[in-house]
Design a protein that fits this description.
The chain has eight helices and eight strands. By secondary structure, it is α+β, with helices and mostly antiparallel strands. The protein has one domain: Outer membrane efflux proteins (OEP) (Up-down Bundle), CATH 1.20.1600. The strands form three sheets. Strands 2-3-5-8 form a four-stranded antiparallel β-sheet, with no helix packed on it. Strands 1-4 form a two-stranded parallel sheet. A two-stranded antiparallel ribbon has the order 6-7. β2 and β3 (84-93) form a beta hairpin. α3 (44-60) runs antiparallel to α4 (96-164). It is rod-shaped. The chain starts with a helix and ends with a helix.
């Protein structure tokens, strides 16, 4: 009977489901894109960062605040024994340069909040992708364990039959049984790891029910050519560099506080009594109004506190600048290391995919035929099984490491 690789995969998948009945019911399988969308929608840190963006956008509108308008009513004997009244309007306005700088600071802070949102999204996407691919790896490893289980069951049946017919001893039978139990134990442990990984992914997604991956384990592609990927677009780096720009604008704004405030005023009053107008006395009552305007400057007499605030803002700028420079240096080293790791894993994957996996399949098929034909003993057969399975297990582990390395580079470059 000729069974191709697709049929084998189907049989193994079916065995996997039959060995885990809970997977047949109430299973929410999600693609990576669906998982990312759910996480970005439900995560509280994302929502918090979005509220922070809204906060600074609203706060930016306060940059043109010119203070409260003042209206003063005065009534009494301020001009003569008669009862006069006076209505005065005044408005103190910060110097236009300060208003302009305050507006620029508000814009910079709003942009900073948006960059912080990208930092949070990038971190969450990294965690979700890493957890998703880890779960994929564990499921693929479980399929491999099931295939081992099938191989060692065949080996156990053959050993039992050989023992009954006197072709082998008790040691061969015991060895076969112990290998089979060891594989079953690994499968049990792996199932527990799968459930743990599902719980972790579910927590990241804030999902009410258990989730699983809809895709099979494959090599993840880089978003673009590796040599064109750069850490310059890292959201955390952009955020820290922008914090320096915010601190610089805050320093400029603090310095402009030392500029004088402008005071504008208007008054309207009565001057009841006799007034000499062009050499002639004229009588005025409360209905006759006199008016005028005021223009003034408010200058601080004690500059020391504001000078100290300006110097403090300058130190804050230096602090954020050094933080950004340190992070950039560290990020450059981390990015280079990630690229080197990726190249290392890619080179090994090419070896496995070009020859090692083919040899493993050849070893399995030929050793099984030779053992049944009595051409090799159980020790050679068992060693051949272990070698072939070890190659496949190493390949899966290497593939997971490669995928995790790609995800890390995406995280460092800010590719969601």
């Amino acid at each position: 009977m000729n069974i191709n690789s697709n049929n084998i995969r189907f049989i193994i998948s079916l065995l996997f489901l039959l060995s885990n009945p809970s997977l047949l019911f109430a299973q929410n399988t999600l693609s990576l894109e669906e998982a990312l969308n759910i996480a970005l929608k439900n995560n509280e840190l994302i929502q918090s960062a979005e509220f922070r963006v809204a906060y600074f956008r609203q706060l930016k509108k306060t940059s043109t605040d010119i203070g409260k308008f003042s209206a003063t009513w005065m009534h009494g004997q301020y001009n003569s024994i008669l009862q006069d009244n006076n209505l005065t309007f005044t408005q103190s306005i910060p110097f236009p340069t300060y208003i302009s700088n305050q507006n620029k600071l508000g814009k910079a802070q709003a942009i900073g909040a948006e960059k912080n949102l990208m930092v949070v999204k990038n971190e969450l996407a990294f965690q979700v992708k890493a957890a998703y691919y880890q779960l994929q790896y564990l499921k693929a490893f479980h399929l491999l364990l099931l295939s081992q289980d099938s191989l060692f069951e065949d080996f156990g049946r053959a050993s039992s039959l050989r023992y009954k017919t006197g072709e082998s001893n008790l040691l061969e039978r015991a060895t076969a049984e112990s290998q089979l139990m060891d594989v079953k134990n690994q499968a049990t442990l792996n199932l527990a790891d799968i459930e743990i990984a599902k719980t972790h992914l579910q927590a990241l997604l804030k999902y009410e029910e258990s989730v699983s991956t809809a895709d099979i384990l494959e090599k993840r592609k880089l978003p673009q050519a590796l040599d064109s990927v750069s850490f310059a677009t890292n959201p955390q780096l952009n955020y820290l560099q922008h914090q320096t720009a915010i601190s610089r604008q805050a320093k400029i704004t603090e310095r402009s506080r030392m500029l004088p405030d402008l005071t504008l005023g208007y008054f309207n009053q009565s001057l009841i009594g006799v007034q000499n107008i062009n050499g002639q006395d004229q009588s005025f009552n409360a209905g006759n109004r006199f008016q005028g305007f005021q223009l003034g400057l408010s200058i601080p007499l004690w500059f020391a506190p504001q000078v100290a605030r300006s110097k403090a803002a300058a130190f804050a700028e230096l602090e954020t600048k050094k933080n950004a420079e340190y992070f950039k240096t560290t990020l450059a080293g981390t990015f280079t290391q990630a690229q080197q790791e990726l190249n290392k894993y890619l080179s090994s994957l090419n070896y496995y995919e070009s020859s090692a996996l083919k040899n493993a399949n050849l070893i399995l098929s030929q050793s099984k035929k030779s053992f049944k034909a009595g051409e090799i003993g159980y020790i050679e057969y068992l060693q051949s099984l272990k070698n072939a399975i070890a190659i496949k297990s190493s390949y899966l582990q290497l593939l997971n490491q490669y995928n995790q390395s790609v995800i890390k580079i995406e995280f460092l470059s800010g590719s969601l």
